[in-house]
C-alpha cells in the first residue's frame, strides 16, 4: 500500500476508530499526544499525511505540526477541531499552514476522503519538486558546460575555489552549503562572453586597457544576471553579484553596500577569490597570509579568521597598517603593496617582510630621488607610539 498517514490525538478511542475506518485505504499510524507524534515521525516516518487534533494537553496541534514540519517537511498537514475552535482554525488555514481541517465528530467517510485528497496533494507537490530539481540541475550543468567550452581558464578557476569555499563554509557553520557550492561553481560564468586573453591577463595581474578592465570587472554583474534566470537560485545570483565587494565598501559593484549588508555567501567567495588570485599571480605560501592580513579591511572579520585557520596561519603579532617614511622603516615591517621606483621598476613585492639589507637598499633609492618617501607597511601593533 505504502501510503502512510499519522493521526495524533489525546483520545485513544478516537484513534482506534480512525484506524478501523482507514485501514483499507492506507497504512495508519497513531500517537497519543504531540510528543508521541514527534517520536512516531522519527521512528516510523516519513508520512505523506499527518492529521492532528487542535486541542491536546501539553502540546497543542499547531505547535505539534510546526515541530513536525521541521522533521518531516514533505508531509501534508490536516487538523481536527471542535466548533469552539473554528475562528482560530480559520486563521491557521488562511495563513497556509494547514491543507484541510475537519470538525469533530467527523462523519464516516469524510476523513478517508480528506486523507485521499491529501495523498493526491502530496503526489502533486512531490512531482513539482522533482521537476524543479531536474530544471535546476539541468540549468546549472548547462551553464558550467558552456563556461568550460567558451572560457576554460574561468572554468578551471571555479573548480579550484569550490573545495576551499565549502571547507570555509563548514568552518563558519553556514546552513545551505549546497547554495555555497553552486555559487562557487557559477561564480565565473560572467566571463562567458569575455575573451580568454582578457580573462587570463586580468587574473595574472597584467595591464588591461580601460575598455578591457571594465569588461573584466563587469563579470560578477553578468554572471548574476545569467544565474537569476534559474528557479530557486535568487540567493546564489545575489551572492555572485557581490562576490567582489569588499567588507569596507570598496570593490564591485560600486555602490553603498558594505559590511553585514553584503550577503554572507559573497563574503566567503570574496576572500577565496582573492586567495586564488594571489596564487595565480605567483605569490608564495608565506606571502599570501601576509597579504590577506594587509587587506584585512576587505573581509568580514569572522570569515577572515576562518580563512587564516584554513591556511594554518596564526600571526605571531597583531599588525597595523600605517604609512611611514623610508627613514622610519624597521625590520619586521611588511610591505602592503608592490613597491616600485618612480620609473615603475619593482623593488619589493607586496607581502614581503623587510630585513636590514632591504631597508638599506630602499634608503639608497630614496636618497637618489628614485623612490617616494612615503611607504605603506604593516608593523607590529606594540610598536605604535
Overview of the structural elements:
The longest helix has 41 residues, at 110-150. This protein has 385 residues and is of the alpha/beta class. The model has no long low-confidence stretch (mean pLDDT 86). The chain has helices at residues 12-22, 34-44, 61-71, 86-94, 110-150, 152-171, 177-186, 196-203, 210-217, 219-227, 234-241, 264-280, 287-294, 301-310, 356-367; strands at 4-8, 27-31, 49-53, 76-81, 100-103, 319-325, 334-335, 339-340, 346-348, 374-380. It contains 15 helices and 10 strands. The chain has 3 domains: 4-126, Rossmann fold (3-Layer(aba) Sandwich); 151-310, Orthogonal Bundle (Hypothetical protein af1432), CATH 1.10.3210; 319-383, Molybdopterin biosynthesis moea protein, domain 2 (Alpha-Beta Complex). A 5-stranded parallel sheet has the order 2-1-3-4-5, with helices on both faces. Strands 6-10-7 form a 3-stranded antiparallel sheet, with helices on one face. The termini are far apart.
- The CATH H-level homologous superfamily of the largest domain: Hypothetical protein af1432
The percent range for strand residues is 5-15%
**The CATH topology of the largest domain is what?**
Hypothetical protein af1432
Shape: elongated
Figure out the total of helices. Answer: 15
Order of helices and strands: EHEHEHEHEHHHHHHHHHHEEEEHE
CATH C-level name of the largest domain: Mainly Alpha
Number of strands: 10
CATH architecture grouping of the largest domain: Orthogonal Bundle
Pfam family, one: Response_reg
InterPro entries: CheY-like_superfamily, Cyclic_di-GMP/3'3'-cGAMP_PDE, Sig_transdc_resp-reg_receiver
Protein name: Response regulator
Keywords: Phosphoprotein
Amino acid at each position: 500500500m505504502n501510503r502512510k498517514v499519522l493521526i495524533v490525538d489525546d483520545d485513544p478511542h478516537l484513534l482506534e476508530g480512525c484506524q478501523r475506518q482507514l485501514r483499507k485505504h492506507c497504512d495508519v499510524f497513531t500517537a497519543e499526544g504531540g510528543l508521541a507524534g514527534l517520536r512516531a515521525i522519527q521512528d516510523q516516518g516519513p508520512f505523506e499525511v499527518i492529521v492532528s487534533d487542535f486541542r491536546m494537553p501539553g502540546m497543542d496541534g499547531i505547535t505539534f505540526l510546526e515541530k513536525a514540519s521541521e522533521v518531516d517537511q514533505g508531509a501534508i498537514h490536516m487538523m481536527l477541531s471542535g466548533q469552539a475552535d473554528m475562528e482560530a482554525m480559520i486563521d491557521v488555514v488562511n495563513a497556509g499552514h494547514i491543507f484541510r481541517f475537519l470538525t469533530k465528530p467527523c462523519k464516516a467517510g469524510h476523513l478517508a476522503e480528506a486523507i485521499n485528497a491529501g495523498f493526491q496533494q502530496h503526489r502533486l507537490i512531490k512531482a513539482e519538486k522533482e521537476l524543479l530539481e531536474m530544471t535546476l540541475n539541468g540549468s546549472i550543468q548547462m551553464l558550467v558546460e558552456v563556461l568550460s567550452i567558451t572560457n576554460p581558464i574561468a572554468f578551471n578557476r571555479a573548480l579550484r575555489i569550490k573545495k576551499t569555499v565549502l571547507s570555509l563554509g563548514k568552518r563558519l557553520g553556514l546552513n545551505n552549503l549546497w547554495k555555497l557550492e553552486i555559487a562557487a561553481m557559477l561564480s565565473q560564468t560572467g566571463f562567458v562572453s569575455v575573451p580568454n586573453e582578457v580573462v587570463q591577463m586580468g587574473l595574472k595581474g597584467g595591464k588591461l586597457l580601460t575598455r578591457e578592465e571594465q569588461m573584466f570587472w563587469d563579470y560578477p554583474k553578468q554572471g548574476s544576471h545569467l544565474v537569476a534566470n534559474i528557479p530557486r537560485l535568487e540567493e546564489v545570483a545575489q551572492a555572485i553579484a557581490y562576490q567582489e565587494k569588499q567588507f569596507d565598501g570598496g570593490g564591485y559593484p560600486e555602490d553603498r553596500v558594505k559590511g553585514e549588508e553584503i550577503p554572507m555567501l559573497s563574503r566567503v567567495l570574496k576572500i577565496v577569490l582573492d586567495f586564488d588570485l594571489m596564487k595565480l599571480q605567483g605569490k608564495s605560501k608565506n606571502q599570501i597570509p601576509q597579504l590577506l592580513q594587509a587587506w584585512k579591511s576587505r573581509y568580514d572579520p569572522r570569515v577572515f579568521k576562518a580563512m587564516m585557520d584554513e591556511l594554518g596561519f596564526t600571526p605571531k603579532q597583531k599588525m597595523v597598517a600605517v604609512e611611514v617614511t623610508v627613514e622610519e622603516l624597521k625590520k619586521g615591517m611588511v610591505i602592503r603593496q608592490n613597491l616600485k621606483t618612480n620609473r615603475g621598476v619593482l623593488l619589493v613585492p607586496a607581502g614581503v617582510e623587510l630585513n636590514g639589507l632591504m631597508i638599506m637598499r630602499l634608503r639608497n633609492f630614496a636618497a637618489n630621488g628614485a623612490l617616494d618617501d612615503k611607504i605603506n607597511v604593516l608593523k607590529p601593533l606594540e610598536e605604535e607610539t
